[in-house]
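lol ok so funny story. i was supposed to be doing the assay writeup but got distracted and ended up predicting the structure for this chain instead. priorities right. anyway since i did it might as well share w the group, maybe its usefull for someone
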Amino acid sequence: MEQTILLNKNLKALLEEIVVLNKMQKSFIQSSLEALTPEEIENLNIYIDFLVTKESLEISYIAKCYDLIVKDTLREQIYFLRHKHYRYSTYEEVAGSVYLNDDYMTKYMYGLAITSFLWPQHCQMKRWFSDRIPKNRKGKYLEIGPGHGYYFMDAQKKTSFENFIGVDISPTSIRLTKSILESGFFGKFSNYELKLIDFLAVDLNEKYDAVVMGEVLEHVESPVAFIKKINKSSKQDAFIYVTTVINAPAIDHIALFTNVEDLDKCVNDGGLKLKEYFLTASNNKLSVEENLKKLLPVNIAMVLEH
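and the output, tada:
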């Protein structure tokens, strides 16, 4: 309870509005806040202030962005448990309603950024990334699918890479990432480039010292093709970090992984090796193994190597 004192005006107002939209979130949010460090709460304060002051967003709109993620995810989980497969299986089925729909994609990205603080499994993934990414390495950093831009921005703050490249197929994601970097709210950034391209369709003609791809594999029809392209685009000693999900339905998830073995095979088929990985489950009252057995969502972060 003591940590709630650290919540600033905008964040308090946002959390109150979220509970108005969904009373079930009240105890969940309180529990999530108690698990955050003071630094993480302060970072969440800052991010919400950025949305309000720099993006000129109303608290009610931000709450609806988060609520969209919560309710869309719940609906897809119910569908998945009933049918044992995701609702869609091709990019074409979801592209128009998600990636190329600026209104929906904007809400989706803002909501997703907030879950990286308020959903324990997403927060744990963020911590693992921060622990694993090399802080003093030089060279070029490539991020595939920066989405809302927070990870891409944070990597520039915390590492010594000299050039940062972000590629995304969504115009909305490029716009949001550019906005967070140009806002001046999180610092000054100049050594980056954002490209609106299909990672698979373009030859980048480079080999990178770090390749990061968060929450992309589940969105594509050919996950192995992405691993092969990462293999081709990374140096032999590159830091390669990839996250995805197991049994975790969402409106735009089309590639279903049911266990770690599925992913290990995908990585191997793409010419890389699974060096280490981290699993965290949506239901933290059960073990990861129990979540997998019950087909409940599990997040996985992987460090890959040549």
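The longest strand covers residues 234-246. The two ends are 46 Å apart (CA to CA).
back to the writeup now i swear
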